[in-house]
Design a protein that fits this description.
The protein has 506 residues and is an alpha/beta fold. Helix content is 46%, strand content 16%. The chain has 17 helices and 12 strands. The strands form 2 sheets. The chain has a 6-stranded mixed beta sheet. The longest helix has 23 residues. The protein is globular, with a radius of gyration of 24 Å.
């Protein structure tokens, strides 16, 4: 038994290092913002998985990394469950199971690397980061998608973040992944004499990316065509009260008061599902909204649930100089619809939450028209979780002059999620070189420019109106012009080519 003891200690040390490396990645993102930790996180991941002695151990180490990454990064699931009075023990249990289940993906990633690619040509500095990119892409669609905690978001507040307009957040993840894999080769037990140049190249990639971001800001790719005075309303209604019948009248009165108060704004945005009754039940209220908007030459857009042929949609409606209806295209599982509804409905309060019987838009949605100073402009609407999908928002923004984003982050309470969501939204502004007006129920509402910089913002958990002047822009970023879902196939094609090359060598 004595000879095995050092191996066991070594395995335990690697597992702890992998867990710690996973924790570092959320710390590089909002609200912490220690962005250099993104490199340390991925360096740690690549180093420990390279040290694995078998595919099984590689899976275990990758799973430990995922446990740290998601255990901290999406700990806000617990707050969502407590919002609907799920008992604390059950909330802890379900959050833990959810995080550990998603952690299987980094484990699978490490297993695939060790089983099929390790020892192949360029495995350490090329194959490993390619697998990282493929699995970020997989997370964006598997089981409807969990496109959260991408490494590229760590660069939002750095000069290199501006390259999102060229590469998207996936390309920013590529910068971190490839440079981290190269830098990891300078660590003990990782040095390869034939690749002594790799760490230096990794450092060069980082420096060049930062420099390019300085000379290529996102706003470079679009042109200002006009400006507008806007206001984003924040109601601060508690989620537990929002859908109660006793709250309907106070809600309608609150938004009427906001409409009276901010009569000089060109565009007013109310949050996701701001009005908690369907349009057919408040026709006089909405007719008055239309009249007031037209008299002032003001566009008013509100979140509301609409209905068609027995199906319910999380929607935005335009009034006054704004027009049209936008229906949410990508719904949140367990929040807006319930998978396995017949089996789960009624088991616990969390499976009976309001608005959990919604339907996604049956067809692709178009921007919303808005008349501004005699010119027809177009607004790219995004509802809540849709902001996490670069392709969805890009398809709308490329035909628009301004992006509007509404959300109800009250579900997440005082957790990491509202801050992470705001950072994700800022990256969508960079990718599309468009300003964004963001209105939320309880924060964080904000005005964001085309470089992703926050011009004005609210504090959380208070009634607020975020006001300011914002630019309307036209023009296509390189990502809008050439990007799309097929970009994700490039790293996948690279993996296939490297795997084929390894088999030929073997």
């Amino acid at each position: 038994m004595m000879p095995t003891a050092p191996v066991l200690r070594s395995s335990a040390s690697l597992a702890l290092l992998s867990l710690f490396s996973g924790i570092l990645l959320p710390l590089s993102l909002a609200p912490f913002g220690f962005w250099p930790l993104a490199w340390l996180s991925l360096i740690g991941y690549f180093w420990v998985t390279e040290r694995a002695q078998s595919p099984k151990q590689a899976f275990w180490l990758g799973w430990c990394f995922g446990a740290g990454l998601f255990g901290l990064g999406i700990s806000w699931v617990y707050g969502s469950m407590r919002t609907v009075a799920t008992p604390i023990p059950l909330s802890v249990l379900m959050t833990t199971v959810f995080c550990l289940a998603i952690a299987l993906l980094p484990g699978l990633q490490a297993w695939l690397y060790h089983r099929f690619f390790k020892q192949g040509r360029g495995s350490q500095w090329l194959t490993a980061p390619l697998l990282w990119l493929v699995f970020e892409w997989v997370r964006s669609w598997l089981f409807t998608g969990m496109p959260w905690l991408f490494a590229g978001y760590a660069l939002t507040d750095t000069p290199a973040g501006q390259l999102g307009a060229v590469l998207s957040v996936y390309g920013l993840s590529a910068i971190i992944a490839f440079s981290s894999a190269a830098l990891a080769m300078a660590l003990p037990a990782q040095v390869n004499r034939s690749l002594r140049w790799a760490p230096g190249l990794g450092a060069v990639v980082i420096v060049v990316s930062m420099g390019l971001g300085v000379v290529l800001p996102a706003e470079r790719w679009s042109t200002v065509i006009d400006s507008a005075d806007v206001v984003a309303i924040q109601s601060n209604v508690a989620q537990a009260q929002k859908w109660q019948s006793s709250q309907v009248r106070p809600t309608l009165e609150f938004y009427s008061e906001q409409a009276r108060r901010y009569d000089s704004a060109d565009l007013m945005i109310w949050p996701e599902a701001a009005l908690t009754v369907r349009p057919e039940r408040i026709p006089a209220y909405l007719e008055d909204l239309e009249r007031v908007g037209n008299e002032r030459q003001q566009g008013i857009i509100t979140g509301i649930v609409t209905q068609q042929e027995g199906r319910y949609f999380n929607a935005l409606l335009g009034f006054g100089t704004a027009d049209g209806e936008y229906r949410k295209q990508h719904l949140v599982p367990f929040g807006e619809y319930l998978p396995f509804e017949q089996q789960l409905r009624g088991l616990i309060n969390f499976f009976n939450i309001p608005m959990s019987t919604l339907t996604p838009a049956p067809e692709p949605q178009a921007p919303m028209p808005w008349m501004h100073r005699g010119e027809e402009r177009y607004l790219a609407p995004v509802i809540c979780y849709e902001a996490a999908y670069p392709g969805l928002t890009m398809a709308l923004a490329r035909e628009s002059d301004l992006m509007i984003m509404v959300s109800n982050d009250a579900w997440f309470g005082d957790s990491l999620a509202p801050h992470q969501h705001l950072q994700i939204t800022r990256m969508r502004a960079i990718e599309n070189s468009r300003a964004i007006v963001r209105s939320t129920q309880n924060g964080i509402s904000a005005l964001i420019d085309a470089n992703g910089e926050i011009l004005e913002r609210s504090r959380q958990f208070e009634v607020a109106a975020v006001t300011g002047s914002i630019n309307l822009r036209q023009g296509l970023t390189p990502y809008q012009r050439w990007g799309g879902p097929y970009w994700a196939l490039l790293p996948l094609a690279g993996l296939i080519a490297l795997g084929w090359s390894k088999r030929r060598v073997d």
